[in-house]
């Protein structure tokens, strides 16, 4: 088994981005296909189901991938890795059963999903299955390319199934059963590769509960900030008509495609930065700042391109009936630079340093404000109200993260090892 090595970062990053280029074609193909085949209302229902599925995935994961990946990076023996795997399975199973019941209740609560019970129920099952994904384990044990290969197989399978069986608006109920089928293929491949690395599929219940306890502070952050992002389309489906859900969902999916460009870098570089934090903190900070600058510049470029091209590109790609999505997208795109900064702070500065408590404080403070404003805004202004809530949430999170980092002394610690700061300090100081 390969170990995480910083010397392999460039090779792995290049290979990952090359492979992921195919995966980015996936939403770009399905967005216009769903929009033209199912129409604005039908696509709104699909987006509400995807939002619910992603929310269930977040709840069942409960911060486990972050904690498991961090443990696996530092594991030195096969028995340690086997124990990590089995405790992860048990922890997810303990949470999966009650969350599945809540998911079925959420289907009944949403008018859009309750009108299509097969679609809603399979969306719940898809979220549960996604929570058992092993991508975190492959990347933290130095097998990034294998993880990407499995993802691409799933991408091809789902694309073939959707294009083969979804031809008209009445095929709406088939979408999630087909996606679930492709996810089963992908999951079978992943577990087939690592089946011999398990000493037993499940650990003791005590070990699963201990993992839940260790992951709770990460979950507090993800369930209060990131979770609101994944659940926003579902929340809108409860309070607004399907046409508003469709307009918001199209814009949200396009923004998600842009944000997903950071995923391969995250999978490759987060383990490297985590390793460097323990061996060379100054280099870890330098790499993290370079990542921040690179992605922030890219986000500003994406904002500019969206403002220039959205008026003709969205109707061209999606067809008639999505004009409202253009207005929503032009405001929603402002989320990109804020989200990029927040992601880099969390993934490259806080999590590698085990600052889970700081994350929890930031997430809770943000959620208390976000939850208060998201529901009334969605009720009164539909898609634009939810966009306003998302923008305010990202800005609020950034502010709280910076304040907490400064108060805890982490900001001074990071800046004190940055080359620019060191160059400004008088000789003989420090």
TrEMBL record:
The keyword Transmembrane applies. The keyword Transmembrane helix applies. It is a multi-pass membrane protein. Pfam families: Polysacc_synt (PF01943). It is found in: Cell membrane. PANTHER family: LIPOPOLYSACCHARIDE BIOSYNTHESIS PROTEIN WZXC (PTHR30250:SF10), PST FAMILY PREDICTED COLANIC ACID TRANSPORTER (PTHR30250). Belongs to the polysaccharide synthase family. This is Polysaccharide biosynthesis protein. It comes from Paraburkholderia phymatum (strain DSM 17167 / CIP 108236 / LMG 21445 / STM815) (Burkholderia phymatum).
């Amino acid at each position: 088994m390969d170990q995480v090595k910083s010397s392999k970062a460039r090779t792995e990053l290049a290979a990952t981005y090359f492979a992921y280029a195919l995966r980015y074609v996936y939403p770009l193909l399905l967005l216009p296909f769903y929009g033209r085949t199912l129409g604005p209302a039908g696509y709104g229902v699909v987006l509400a189901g995807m939002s619910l599925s992603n929310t269930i995935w977040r709840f069942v994961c409960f911060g486990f991938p972050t904690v498991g990946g961090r443990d696996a990076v530092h594991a030195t023996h096969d028995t340690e890795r086997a124990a990590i795997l089995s405790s992860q399975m048990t922890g997810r199973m303990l949470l999966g059963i009650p969350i599945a019941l809540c998911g079925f209740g959420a289907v009944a609560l949403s008018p859009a999903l309750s009108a299509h019970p097969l679609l809603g129920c399979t969306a719940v099952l898809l979220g549960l299955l996604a929570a058992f994904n092993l991508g975190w384990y492959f990347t933290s044990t130095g097998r990034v390319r294998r993880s990407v290969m499995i993802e691409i197989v799933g991408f091809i399978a789902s694309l073939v199934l959707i294009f083969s069986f979804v031809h008209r608006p009445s095929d709406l109920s088939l979408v999630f059963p087909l996606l679930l089928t492709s996810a089963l293929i992908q999951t079978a491949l992943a577990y087939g590769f690592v089946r011999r690395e398990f000493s037993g599929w499940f650990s003791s219940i005590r070990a699963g509960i201990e993992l839940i306890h260790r992951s709770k502070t990460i979950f507090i952050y993800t369930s209060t900030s990131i979770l609101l992002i994944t659940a926003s389309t579902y929340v809108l489906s409860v309070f607004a008509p399907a046409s508003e859900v469709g307009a918001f969902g199209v814009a949200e999916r396009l923004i998600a495609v842009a944000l997903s460009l950071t995923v391969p870098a995250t999978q490759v570089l987060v383990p490297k930065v985590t390793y460097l934090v323990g061996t060379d903190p100054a280099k870890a900070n330098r790499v993290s700042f370079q990542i921040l600058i690179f992605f922030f510049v890219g986000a500003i470029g994406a904002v500019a391109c969206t403002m220039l091209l959205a008026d003709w590109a969205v109707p061209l790609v999606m067809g008639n009936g999505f004009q409202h999505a253009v207005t929503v997208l032009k405001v929603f795109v402002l989320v990109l630079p804020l989200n990029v900064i927040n992601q880099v702070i969390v993934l490259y500065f806080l999590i590698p340093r085990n600052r889970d408590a700081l994350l929890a404080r930031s997430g809770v403070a943000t959620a208390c404000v976000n939850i208060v404003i998201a529901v009334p805004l969605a009720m009164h202004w539909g898609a634009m109200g939810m966009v306003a809530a998302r923008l305010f949430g990202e800005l609020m999170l950034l502010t709280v993260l910076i304040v907490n980092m400064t108060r805890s002394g982490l900001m001074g610690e990071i800046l004190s090892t940055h080359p620019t700061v060191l160059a400004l300090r008088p000789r003989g100081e420090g």
